[in-house]
Amino acid sequence: MISGTHTPHHMDIDSIGALVAESNAAQEKPVRHIRIFDTTLRDGEQSPGASMTFAEKMQVAEQLVRMGVDIIEAGFPSASPGDLAAVREIARRTRGTAVAGLARANQSDIDACREALQDAERPVLHVFLATSDLHMQYKLMMTREEVLARVDEMVRYGRRFFADVEFSAEDATRSDWNFLSQVFTTAISAGASTINIPDTVGYTMPNEYTALLTHLRRTVPGIEKVTMSAHCHDDLGMATANTLAAIAAGVGQVEVTINGLGERAGNTALEEVVMALRTRADTFGGYTTRIATEQLVPTSQMVSRITGIHVQPNKAIVGANAFAHEAGIHQDGMLKHRGTYEIMEPRMVGWSESKLVLGKHSGRHGFDAHLRRMGMRLRGEELQRAYESFIAFVDEHKTVDADDLRRIAEIAKHMPLPEQASA
Ligand code: KIV
Ligand code: ZN
Q1: Residue 266 Cβ < 6 Å to ligand 1
Q2: In the beta sheet, which residues pair with residue 231?
Q3: What share of the chain is helix, strand, coil (3-state, %, to 5)?
Q4: From the CB of 231, is ligand 1 less than 6 Å away?
Q5: Of 119, 135, 277, 393, which sits with the fewest C-beta atoms within 10 Å of its C-beta?
Q6: Closest Cα to atom 8 of ligand 1
Q7: pTM for the whole thing?
Q8: Helix, strand or coil for residue 64?
Q9: Residues 25-50: pLDDT tens digits?
Q10: pLDDT reading at 8 higher than 80
Q11: What is the pLDDT of residues 88-132, one digit of tens each?
Q12: Helix H segments across 28-162?
């Protein structure tokens, strides 16, 4: 045993080895794989205006597989014959990645999922029922007892046909915590392998979500044997923060969409969670995903092109300006060391390079670097004059393109220098 009074100098080699092993074990968290459940084709498609054709859904599903998601929620088969057909075809084509279908807690929805997922290599049935008093009273018109009985009945029914059943308690974050514990206890004893705790209306805050998940872990028997899942909406802009808090609180699965598409303000953006875990491994430590991160931008662009929903330029990771620098101080820093203003490598997420954008905030240094990259070399007075014309130009026109720059540089080059002009 290692006594507190010993120093390594007094120890034999075995004791030192034990001390090192003990301190490594204390510092290193075991690596935990976070399962990425992509719901772009289901919750994402519920974005107003985002509906996709059959062929487009096939393209997106193929790209999601290429990018390495663990589960594709391919649709809501009972919603329409078109949805059922698309889920069925995705299930038939997809190998190596699980395919989920969504069902309300009734037999005909579950039967539609059976039909749609019959050819899936790894089918997942996703059943949901609302559990907040508000939803139960006004939407479902069911009592708590009726909801518990329905969860039990439908999860058991689902388990007759599916080895993997996920149960979601819709509006979980606004549900009574003790009732929610009863709901999940029921779902687990009926055979659910994943329990999802959705923040359906984007209401919760990270500390509250953490507290709710901790409460469930303490009060639901058997919860340690199933996978807990987070599903967050972005109504208050907290979806990514809440999802990361859920990971720290022990969930093994996160439900996300490309570009944060989804009902109303959208769902948690896949790219943000994946890159936060990777970039801030120092703080999260030990979490990995299977996502090939260099596929993030191509996937984002495909989904944006197909749905017609543009990605805002300042969107994290995949926005056109996510790696663009305009201010002179920033460009100067970037030219000296990219770490001054970038925390990720653009190539790591699928951009070809960072952009030093010229605008009225750009300095002489950035302007000069830009001209050089275009193959133009101006020095001294010529460079100063070109820079002044450029600033006057962007003040008036806001933006400048390569042709404008070439013209500005040519004029500055061919204007007589002050001493020639006065000669
Ligand atoms: O937001 C939500 O509650 C959902 C469920 C169907 C999981 O999308
Ligand atoms: Zn949702």
Answers
A1: no
A2: 198, 255
A3: 50, 15, 35
A4: yes
A5: 119
A6: 43
A7: 0.88
A8: helix
A9: 445 667 899 999 999 999 999 998 89
A10: no
A11: 999 999 999 999 999 999 999 999 999 999 999 999 999 999 999
A12: 54-67, 81-93, 107-116, 133-134, 144-159
